[in-house]
Amino acid sequence: MIITQELLSQTDALARQAGAAIMEIYGRDFAVEQKQDNSPLTEADAAAHHIIVNGLKALPLTAPILSEEDTAGFAGADEQGRYWLVDPLDGTKEFIKRNGEFTVNIALIEHGKPVLGVVYAPALGVGYMAAQGLGAFKYEGDKVPVAIAVVAHQEGQPWRVVGSRSHGGGELPSLLDKLGEHELVAMGSSLKLCLVAEGAADVYPRLGPTSLWDTGAAQCVVEQAGGTVVQLNGEPLCYANTQEVLNPYFLVLGRNDVNWPGLFG
Known about the structure:
Layout: H1 5-26, E1 32-34, E2 40-42, H2 43-57, E3 65-67, E4 82-90, H3 92-97, E5 103-110, E6 113-121, E7 126-131, E8 135-140, E9 146-147, E10 159-164, H4 172-179, E11 182-187, H5 191-197, E12 203-206, H6 212-224, E13 228-231, E14 250-253, H7 260-264
Parallel strand pairs: 3-4, 10-11
Antiparallel strand pairs: 1-2, 4-5, 5-6, 6-7, 7-8, 8-9, 12-14, 13-14
Helix pairs in contact: 1-2, 5-6
């Protein structure tokens, strides 16, 4: 399937609309509930969900929608193996802390692979978007999006490692010891993957729980920027099995120049 620039722009516009609704709630008092899995939920999650779902249904490309806020309403991919994958508010904990590091994530999946992805951080006024055949881009505010690309780690320089703001992972210190000299930067939500995509970090090891909707959009940005997102067995992170929404542990690489089997062996 050929993704058009128009479809990418329409998807980005939906993310911005959802972001505006999130920021209206962000600027006032809001209640916090707990889901069955003990993760937090706010009215911003629900508001963004409705905007995105209604907007996707109005697009020329129609496909089933898997949203974090309505997993029960998803019956599976269509006959072409396509579906929309949505996290209306990724980084709800960061939203509650009011540190700005939360995003709207929208991805189009085809045969288990993200072929379009939009990541928008409304509090920061920063967005990333990418699509198969079109490349990866970053924009700030109303500025024209600019192409981004990963960079290779410079030999002799410390590894620039990005990690979770709220979920460190008990195995991370051991991995960092194996990696050698490094600088660790903490970041929330799917922005961690985007830092690798734009060349601001070399590697992002995720040794803790994530779900499909946490990573799909940003994985597309990474891959279209020339990077890779691999499981610890070396296989790409895949979105074909929607019956299992939890991702395996994974590694985001600016360039596939890390001896990751040695790191995990």
